[in-house]
Every structure is written in structure tokens, then in C-alpha cells.
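Would you be willing to look carefully at the protein I have copied below?

:::
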Amino acid sequence: MTDAAMTPARRLRNIIGGSAGNLVEWFDWFAYAAFTVYFAPVFFPSGDSTAELLKAAAVFAVGFLMRPVGAWIMGVYSDRRGRKAGLTLSVSLMCAGSLIIACTPGYAAIGLAAPALLLLARMLQGLSVGGEYGSSATYLSEMATAKHRGFWSSFQYVTLISGQLLALLLLIVLQNTLGEGALESWGWRIPFFVGAALAVVVFWIRRRVDETSAFIATDMGEAPKSSALLLMLKHPKEALMVIGLTAGGTVAFYTYTTYLQKFLVNTTGFSKATATEISAAALLIFMLIQPAVGALSDRIGRRPVMVAFGVSGVLFTAPIMTALSGVDSPFIAFLLAMAALVIVSGYTSINAVVKAELFPAHIRALGVALPYAIANALFGGTAEYAALWFKDNGMESAFFWYVTALIGVSLLTYIRMRDTGRNSLIVHPD
């Protein structure tokens, strides 16, 4: 079906269908981060909470190292076989990874095989998420109309944040029903069973969405086949631009989402339950403002929105993190976290569409996914590990300036790049 013939209701159904899978992908991905404080001693027993978290964070980072591989394999697959095919494959891999984590016995039962299986599961999930981002960003950007592309593509992060929020809400429910002892013993396995079951449902949903007309037109034409070599030879500037614009955004995002919960426990001194509630409340508002910022980019352009994130991030990251480290009021902690996430929205709400608008259709999924995954492996996936390493070595505040410096690198990219909203390479009739 062409875009011109597609009814608004059908287009909305397709966008929701693609987004639903993204929610499950990121629920599974963030369940690991949300429940780390409970299962880290099961796989890495040492008696030192920071050391246990450090080892679990290292496995989390390995999952990010697999994302470029997944981005490469499934980016090519999505460009050649279709966005729909890429979406269904990615959610299948995520299901397998979640089941492995849910079913693996602890170190006390099977020794080193326990952390080895945990590592394998995270590698599978890394492959999945690496491919998911490019397929999802490309699908939503191509399915949306040009006039509202920023608004609709922002739902990638709405569903991404929804997945993380759902993981945190499940944690809150389990904290208030099972208690800490049961959570540390076996309750932490529940979210991984839930994620695997949801993945089966989403697999069925994604089988029913329409393919994008941009891919259909490319598939019927004579465009060159997608490959990493083609990306490096024909689009090196755009690929480097994706890495540059992602570096600061991804380290800021993971600092204020996956790491924040642990920071509030391990540094600020809140209980695990209070830290979870602060994170969940901030994430809820963060999720709700994504479409508003995306719609703003449709009116004023992508570049001004991203520059606003860069400038604010450079000015306020260290002050916010310093204030959070010494706060004793949960409400003040929430306000500080919320301020940080509002700033990061200038990146999260539109980064997917900006990347998609940089590339032609025949290499779009790979062009979006691979450079982004490389930047995530280098900066996003290591954010938590870097933060804990700095803390373990008695210089935690240095991490705040590390994040600030990376945002500064991205700010230089935003200033120098063209406004993709006004010079988009996504072409289809509206």
C-alpha cells in the first residue's frame, strides 16, 4: 500500500504496532539494569556491594559491545529483506535472551557457568537491541508523514522509556509484595519471564504491520545492496556524524536512567525502594514530554532542539549530579532528576528521526543502526561501569565532568550539521 492510499487510522495502527515491539525490547533490556541490585550477589558473590555491581555492570557493558554486531547484521537484513522482517527477528532474539536469564541457576549451584550463561544472554540481547534501534527508527520515520515526522518518530523513545518504566513499576510492585529477601532469592527472575512472554505477543503483532513504501520502492528499484563497505565508502561523513551526535546524548541518557537508581542508593543513601520510586516518577514525566519536543522540532527544526540539549547539558550536568549526591529529600531528588531528563529530551525525542533523515532508503537501517551502536558501545553501555569505577577509586565527581565533556563533543556536531528536518532524505508522497 502506498503512503498516499494509507488512511490515517492504518498509519497509526502501523506506528503503534512497531512501537509495541520497541517497548518489549527495552523492557527486557532495562529489566537487567533495574534488578541488578538484587541478582548481582547471585551471579557474582563477594560480600562487597560495589564490587558485585561493578561485575554486573561489566556484563551490561558487554551487551552493548554486541550491539554494533547486531546493528551490522540486522541493519543489512532490514535494508535487504524489509523493515518488518528486521523487527520480527530482533524481538525473537530478545525473547531467547530473557528466557536464559530467567532460568539460569546461581553461582552457588553451577559455579562459573552461571555468570557465563548470564553473559551469553546479554550478548543475545545486545544483538537484538542493536538491530532493533535501526529497524524501529527507520520504520517509524518512513511510516510518518513529513509534516509530523518529528512527533511520530518520538514515539520510539516513548516506548523505550515505557519499557524501562514498566520494568521499574514491576520492581516497585514486587518490592511491596514479596519483600527484599524473596526478591534477592528468586523474585528477580519474574521480569525476565514476563519479558519473554510479551515478546511472543509482539512477534505476532509485528507480523501484521505493513511494510513501508520507502522500502518497497527501493526493493523494486536498482539501488545498491546495503553493506558496511557501502556505508563506509559512500556515506562516511554521515556515519561519523551519527557517532558524534550520539556520544553525549547516550551517556547522558544512561546516566539519568539506568544508573540513576543505583546512584541514589550507592551514593546518595536512599533505600532501594525510595530510589526506584524517584526514578519511576521522573521517567513517567520524561516519557510524556517526548512527543511535545518532537512536535516542536517539526515547527522550529531539529538542529535548534539538539543545540539546546548540548548547551544545557554542558552547563548543568555537573551541578545537577553534585546536588543529587548530597540531597536528603526524595522530592528534591525527583526535581533534580526531572530537570536532567528535561534537558536530555532535546536529544532523545528526535535523535532517531535525525539519523534516519541523513541516509537514503537503500542503506538507511544500517546507516542509522551501526554508527549509533558503535557510539553506544563506547559511551552509553560503559556509562554505568565508568561511574562505578570512578566511585570505587575515590573520584566520583570526575564522572560528572566526563559526561559533560562528551555532551560538549556532541554539541560541536549539532552546531556544524545541517538541519535534517528541512533537508531530509526520506522521500515519499504525503
Notes: The two ends are 13 Å apart (CA to CA).
